[in-house]
Amino acid sequence: MMLGHAAARRITEVIERTIARRGRCTLALAGGSTPRAIYACMRAPALVDRIAWQRVAIYFGDERCVPPDAEESNYRMAREELLQHMPVARATVHRMEGELADTDAAARDYAARLPSALDVLLLGMGKDGHTASLFPGAPALAERTRRVLAVQCPAPDRPRLTITPPVIDAAETVIVLVAGHDKAATVARALEGPYVPDELPIQLALRGTWLMDDAATGALQGSPA
Fold it and tell me: What secondary structure letter does DSSP report for 198?
């Protein structure tokens, strides 16, 4: 996957520059199939060795309300594809505790642990234009105070914890990762259509760097046929 290797290099460079400038880096990971492939590329020794991982604090943009070892868990995916291959201390990995019965309390606790502004925020995009667990038409899109919420998702998916728009707005560097023909129409609407984040939540990240494969950009004006 060409996007995987290119995106892995770009993310590594951003983390490396952030540590050089600030002495540390706070990084929020995304879930989903596209980030999974990129994380697998990031664990290449040539990239791993460039980063002082003991200076990186890991966070998450969203999580399903499942135990951390569940198949659906974003934390489990990130651990298997990336974190267990890195010299990362367990204390520097801050997962969302989606398995807790009181999901509102879990959201408040995670909001308290988040830095005031993430250095690097990775986001994916669903075919419907959702990002993190901010879905089209969701009340969470109007949130301006709370930084993490427990939310209901379109059936049959599970409830989730998610960051809210203020976290995206505050992040220093936002990187959007998109792959696949099935997302091309949504990419074109998001980048070339009117600004309607209630319908296309990914537009909250328009100021970010979008890393996409050729398939995902296929419906943009001027793209090769």
Answer: T
Interhelix angle 33-42/2-22, rounded to 10 degrees, is: 70
How many whole angstroms separate alpha carbon 170 and alpha carbon 166?
A: 6
Mean predicted lDDT score pLDDT of the chain:
96
Q: Interhelix angle for 74-81 vs 33-42, to 10°?
A: 30
Q: Where are the beta strands (DSSP E) in the chain?
A: 25-29, 56-60, 62-64, 120-124, 148-151, 160-163, 173-178, 209-212
pLDDT in tens, 197-210: 999 999 999 999 99
Across the strands, what pairs with 195? none
List, for residues 149-184, the tens digit of each pLDDT value: 999 988 777 899 999 999 999 999 999 999 999 999
Q: Is the dihedral of CA 87, 89, 94, 98 positive or negative?
A: positive
* Cross-strand partners of 210: 176
C-alpha distances in Å from residue 183, one per residue of 126, 178, 191, 216: 7, 8, 12, 6
Question: Could you tell me the two tokens for 221?
Answer: 């004006």
CA distances from 66 to 131, 157, 164 (A): 19, 11, 20
Fold type of domain 2-204: Rossmann fold (3.40.50)
User: Does residue 2 contact residue 34 with C-beta atoms inside 8 Å?
Assistant: no
Q: Per residue in 113-149, pLDDT tens?
A: 999 999 999 999 999 999 999 999 999 999 999 999 9
